[in-house]
């Protein structure tokens, strides 16, 4: 197969809030707009890895209206900014982007807040996958399963379609520890990183077959959309009628022509403070200190402050995060529970903290 004679359009999904990284990540300043690794915002880093003009067109971003100005400042080369009038998960967001594109356009869907250390390796994988996507395959990129992780979904590889490209045999959502260990040991399963490449028309056909209510709502929303420069405002009432579903549930787990390209590119979703600790530069004692902080006789801690000096003394494996109005202290290996604190704040009506 040869590469298609047209460019790939990146579609960056920027609608999430990153509640597991509270209090750093807030509704007004979500995870993707934060500089978590010292190299710029996660959104800017995502866009940077898809800027090769020989391969990529100007990106489309799908986001909430409250992020519009921040996104335009971060991405001066933005092609289209689709502003969702309501949060409806990834399938409706992708439907909007596919409808805004040409039928035969290749779209590369990317979460806005993931880390990929080997950007060139990722671009090589996109080039490998592009001819299959041009032929109608919906391609997903399988991230090397480095450990028996129960917090990720997995993709099983089936028959080889070409060099480094396989039919996707099945999707598994967040298995238990024993199943995850078996997947890693078996070598046929990759993590589902939520990155997809497809022809816009192939995705619209798949939505028509497997999620017609989502497609109808997106079509009505785009038919009633207003435009202001690069900004597209889908009709609020029409879009609100869409079911809220992930693209995995709506399409990927059901469609017949799904392929997987396994990659090893240093991927992380930075979905918790423990994951952030793992990808950050650590001192000899395994501590990560960002901002005014101090670790004394401490090991394995993530200390991050946006204001007050934080001193951690004689402690191990803690996350300590201080902002102007909140302080978080949690054992590093329990940092997924941060979302429970966010939910409790929401139930108590303490929205000013969110």
Task: Furnish the topology, listing elements before pairings.
Blueprint: E1 8-14, H1 42-48, E2 60-64, H2 68-74, E3 80-84, H3 90-100, E4 106-111, E5 115-116, H4 119-134, E6 138-143, E7 154-162, E8 165-172, H5 177-186, E9 189-199, H6 200-210, H7 212-223, E10 226-228, E11 231-233, H8 236-240, H9 247-252, E12 258-263, E13 267-268, H10 273-279, E14 288-290, E15 293-296, E16 302-305, E17 310-313, E18 318-322, E19 327-331, H11 338-347
Parallel strand pairs: 1-2, 1-4, 2-3, 3-11, 6-12, 14-16, 15-17, 16-18
Antiparallel strand pairs: 4-9, 5-13, 6-9, 7-8, 7-9, 8-12, 10-11, 18-19
Helix pairs in contact: 3-6, 3-7, 6-7
Offer a quick outline of the entry.
The chain is α/β, with parallel strands linked by helices and 354 residues long.
What does it look like?
This protein is an alpha/beta fold. The chain folds into two domains: 8-268, Spore Coat Polysaccharide Biosynthesis Protein SpsA, Chain A (Alpha-Beta Complex); 275-353, no CATH class. It is built from eleven helices and 19 strands. A five-stranded mixed beta barrel has the order 6-9-7-8-12. A four-stranded mixed sheet has the order 14-16-18-19, with helices on one face. A two-stranded antiparallel ribbon has the order 5-13. Strand 10 and strand 11 (231-233) form a beta hairpin. Helix 3 packs across helix 7 (212-223) and helix 6 crosses helix 7 (212-223). The N and C termini lie far apart (49 Å).
């Amino acid at each position: 197969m040869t590469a298609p004679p047209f460019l790939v359009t990146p579609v960056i999904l920027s609608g999430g809030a990153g509640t597991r990284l509270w209090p750093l990540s807030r509704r007004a300043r979500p995870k993707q707009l934060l500089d978590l690794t010292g190299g710029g915002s996660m959104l800017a880093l995502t866009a940077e890895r898809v800027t090769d003009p020989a391969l990529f067109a100007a990106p489309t971003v799908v986001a909430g209206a409250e992020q519009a100005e921040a996104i335009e400042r971060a991405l001066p080369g933005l092609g289209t900014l689709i502003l969702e009038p309501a949060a409806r998960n990834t399938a409706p967001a992708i439907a909007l982007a596919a409808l805004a594109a040409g039928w035969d356009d290749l779209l590369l869907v990317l979460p806005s807040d993931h880390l990929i250390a080997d950007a060139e390796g990722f671009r090589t994988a996109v080039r490998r996958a592009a001819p299959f996507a041009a032929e109608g395959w919906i391609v997903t990129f399988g991230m090397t399963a480095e450990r028996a992780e129960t917090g990720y979904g997995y993709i099983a590889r089936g028959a080889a379609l070409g060099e480094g490209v396989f039919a996707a045999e099945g999707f598994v959502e967040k298995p238990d520890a024993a199943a995850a260990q078996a997947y890693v040991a078996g070598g046929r399963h990759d993590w589902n990183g939520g990155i997809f490449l497809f022809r816009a028309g192939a995705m619209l056909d798949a939505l028509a077959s497997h999620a017609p209510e989502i497609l109808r709502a997106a079509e009505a929303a785009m038919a009633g959309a207003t435009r202001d420069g690069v900004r597209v405002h889908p009709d609020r009432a029409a879009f609100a009628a869409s079911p809220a579903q992930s693209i995995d549930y709506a399409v990927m787990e059901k469609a017949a022509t799904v392929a997987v390209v396994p990659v090893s590119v240093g991927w992380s979703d930075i979905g918790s403070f423990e994951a952030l600790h793992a990808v950050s530069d650590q001192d000899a004692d395994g501590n990560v200190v960002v901002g005014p902080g101090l670790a004394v006789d401490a090991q394995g801690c993530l200390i991050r402050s946006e204001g007050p000096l934080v001193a951690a003394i004689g402690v191990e494996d803690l996350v300590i995060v201080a902002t102007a109005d909140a302080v978080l202290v949690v054992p590093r290996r329990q940092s997924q529970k941060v979302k429970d604190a966010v939910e409790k704040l929401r139930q108590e009506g303490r929205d000013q903290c969110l």
